[in-house]
């Protein structure tokens, strides 16, 4: 009596293994071919760097970058702007700290409507391009009410300088004495005038 061997499971395993092998080779080739392109991409910040944002008015600001490769401006690239999730930061119109836009035919990507939060301090907005290792940063600083801590320190310094000047003036007034007035001459006892008795008589 001969045994019947079911070859279906073996065939399925072989097909699955072949598919996974082809997929791995394809992914390796794709990443290898994409490397030169990734290295050639660069991001140029056109607007928003070193921006100062008021935590009191919380006015909107925009970030503008240009994406380029070896052929010039790169159109259709997906660019992501990302602000810190905590601390001094802000939000985009989607109520999140991240926004993705696509570059126009000139390679320009603009993230509009960024509003600072109420935390004062410096922070960076990170810019990345999809399928690329290129990155850029846009420096921002949130300024508190009436200039925040910067103006507070200026007020302290000016106050200390004013107090020092007042103290110096007071010490100067204490150390300088008014000029002495000339004393009246002392009359010796011999110069004292004594009134004598006067007599009145007929003319001689």
- Counting DSSP H or I runs of 4 or more residues, the number of helices is 2
Based on CA atoms alone, the radius of gyration comes out at 45 Å
H and E order:
HEEEEEEEEEEH
The CATH architecture of the domain at 40-148: Sandwich
Summarize the biggest pleated sheet.
5 strands, antiparallel
Q: In which range does the helix fraction lie?
A: 25-40%
Instruction: Tell me the name of the CATH class of the domain at 40-148.
Output: Mainly Beta
* Total DSSP E strands: 10
- Average pLDDT for all residues: 76
- Distance from N terminus to C terminus (CA atoms, Å) equals 199 Å
Strand content: 25-35%
Shape verdict? elongated
Enter the CATH topology name of the domain at 40-148: Immunoglobulin-like
Task: Decide which structural class fits the backbone.
Answer: alpha+beta
CATH superfamily membership of the domain at 40-148: Immunoglobulins
Low-confidence stretches: 32-36, 153-158, 174-179, 190-200
Short description:
The chain has 204 residues and is an alpha+beta fold. Helices cover 30% and strands 29% of the residues.
Keywords:
single chain, 204 residues, alpha+beta, 5-stranded antiparallel β-sheet, 30% helix, elongated
Q: Could you explain how this protein is built, in words?
A:
It is a single chain. The chain has 204 residues and is α+β, with helices and mostly antiparallel strands. It has helices spanning 8-40, 148-175, and strands spanning 42-47, 51-54, 61-69, 72-73, 78-82, 90-91, 98-102, 108-116, 121-129, 135-143. The strands form two sheets. Strands 1, 3, 4, 6 and 8 form a five-stranded antiparallel β-sheet that branches. It has a five-stranded mixed β-sheet with strand order 2-10-9-5-7, with no helix packed on it. The longest helix has 33 residues, at 8-40.
């Amino acid at each position: 009596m001969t045994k019947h061997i079911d070859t279906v499971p073996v065939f399925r395993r072989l097909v699955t293994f072949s598919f996974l092998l082809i997929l791995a080779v394809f992914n390796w080739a794709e990443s290898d071919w994409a490397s030169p392109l990734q290295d050639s991409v660069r991001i140029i910040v056109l607007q928003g760097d070193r921006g100062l944002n008021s935590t009191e008015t919380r006015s909107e600001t925009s970030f503008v970058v240009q994406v380029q490769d070896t052929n010039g401006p790169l159109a259709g690239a997906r660019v992501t702007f990302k602000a810190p999730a905590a601390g001094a930061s802000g939000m985009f119109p989607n109520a999140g700290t991240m926004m993705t836009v696509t570059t126009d035919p000139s390679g320009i990507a603009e993230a509009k409507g960024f509003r600072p939060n109420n935390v004062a301090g410096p922070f960076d907005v990170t810019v990345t391009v999809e399928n690329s290792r290129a990155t850029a940063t846009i420096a921002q600083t949130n300024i508190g009410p009436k200039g925040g801590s910067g103006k507070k320190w200026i007020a302290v310094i000016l106050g200390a300088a004013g107090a020092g000047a007042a103290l110096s003036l007071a010490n100067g007034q204490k150390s300088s004495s008014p000029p002495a007035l000339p004393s009246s001459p002392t009359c010796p006892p011999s110069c004292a005038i004594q009134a004598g008795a006067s007599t009145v008589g007929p003319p001689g």
